[in-house]
Design brief:
Strand content: 25-35%
Structural class: alpha+beta
Number of helices: 2
Distance between the termini: 30 Å
Strand order of the largest sheet: 2-1-3
Radius of gyration: 16 Å
Order of helices and strands: HEEHE
Helix content: 10-25%
Largest sheet: 3 strands, antiparallel
Length: 73
């Protein structure tokens, strides 16, 4: 969805908040594309009929988070 927001709104910066809730995870799944009917989409499909059929294609991302108190874990 971030790529879609950048494409539609010409964003140059993004502020992410509430990341401290992720500091307990070693990895998180990040959606990198969508798949439907054997086709891969780098962006959410334009047509709603296809969008409702997609499954996310994810990649595990290793986190290097600090705890919310500022100490490295």
């Amino acid at each position: 969805m971030a790529r879609q927001a950048v494409r539609l709104n010409s964003l140059s910066e993004v502020a992410l908040t509430k990341l401290d809730v992720l500091d307990t995870f070693e990895t998180v799944k990040v959606c990198v594309a969508y798949e439907a009917n054997g086709e891969r989409f780098e962006y959410p499909p334009y047509h709603q009929s296809i969008l409702h059929q997609v499954t996310p294609s994810t990649r595990a991302a290793r986190l290097a988070c600090r705890s919310h108190d500022g100490n490295h874990e």
